[in-house]
């Protein structure tokens, strides 16, 4: 049973989400402020931290950053009732796993949480992904990518796409699967063309010849 820490200063929404997650098999601890949340993280181990964005004393991004300093492998979700580009970019830059709007439907919330929990964690002693054929090295601890021993700058989505393919060599991945795992959204909410554009950019930046299109099915890393 996955262990979730929910930090939410809106008591009614916190009770709603706690009840929802508990009914779906999660073990949930709840705090109403980030200071109590930090104390709870020092006492117990969690698979996922869900935090409201706007809270007294410390905002959700700062809190989840503190949570990761205590438990480096914990997954993180930011909740907000008032989404804006600035806070979303701040979340992305601080490696938050998901920035989620509170008004999402119940099934959407549950799907997002499941997808975040299913994301693979880097393994301490085996955190490098390789492509010998393409001379590519991806470091899951530093989030750096090297091509022929030269560091290459990738966007976050390009990095996550590359990691997904290197973890699934030889498997055909449909656009729907890619959207679900990388964008963590229902495939109906993202244009398939977005995947194609990101893969083209990845091929161009890294000169990849083993990432092939399987017409009618998706993409495959042949190695």
Automatic annotation (TrEMBL):
<feature type="modified residue" description="4-aspartylphosphate">
    <location>
        <position position="52"/>
    </location>
</feature>
<dbReference type="GO" id="GO:0005829">
    <property type="term" value="C:cytosol"/>
</dbReference>
<keyword id="KW-0597">Phosphoprotein</keyword>
<feature type="DNA-binding region" description="OmpR/PhoB-type">
    <location>
        <begin position="125"/>
        <end position="223"/>
    </location>
</feature>
<dbReference type="InterPro" id="IPR016032">
    <property type="entry name" value="Sig_transdc_resp-reg_C-effctor"/>
</dbReference>
<dbReference type="GO" id="GO:0000976">
    <property type="term" value="F:transcription cis-regulatory region binding"/>
</dbReference>
<dbReference type="InterPro" id="IPR001789">
    <property type="entry name" value="Sig_transdc_resp-reg_receiver"/>
</dbReference>
<feature type="domain" description="Response regulatory">
    <location>
        <begin position="3"/>
        <end position="117"/>
    </location>
</feature>
<dbReference type="InterPro" id="IPR039420">
    <property type="entry name" value="WalR-like"/>
</dbReference>
<dbReference type="InterPro" id="IPR001867">
    <property type="entry name" value="OmpR/PhoB-type_DNA-bd"/>
</dbReference>
<keyword id="KW-0805">Transcription regulation</keyword>
<dbReference type="InterPro" id="IPR011006">
    <property type="entry name" value="CheY-like_superfamily"/>
</dbReference>
<protein>
    <submittedName>
        <fullName>Two-component system OmpR family response regulator/two-component system response regulator VanR</fullName>
    </submittedName>
</protein>
<dbReference type="GO" id="GO:0006355">
    <property type="term" value="P:regulation of DNA-templated transcription"/>
</dbReference>
<dbReference type="GO" id="GO:0032993">
    <property type="term" value="C:protein-DNA complex"/>
</dbReference>
<feature type="domain" description="OmpR/PhoB-type">
    <location>
        <begin position="125"/>
        <end position="223"/>
    </location>
</feature>
<keyword id="KW-0902">Two-component regulatory system</keyword>
<dbReference type="InterPro" id="IPR036388">
    <property type="entry name" value="WH-like_DNA-bd_sf"/>
</dbReference>
<dbReference type="Pfam" id="PF00486">
    <property type="entry name" value="Trans_reg_C"/>
</dbReference>
<keyword id="KW-0804">Transcription</keyword>
<dbReference type="Pfam" id="PF00072">
    <property type="entry name" value="Response_reg"/>
</dbReference>
<keyword id="KW-0238">DNA-binding</keyword>
<dbReference type="GO" id="GO:0000156">
    <property type="term" value="F:phosphorelay response regulator activity"/>
</dbReference>
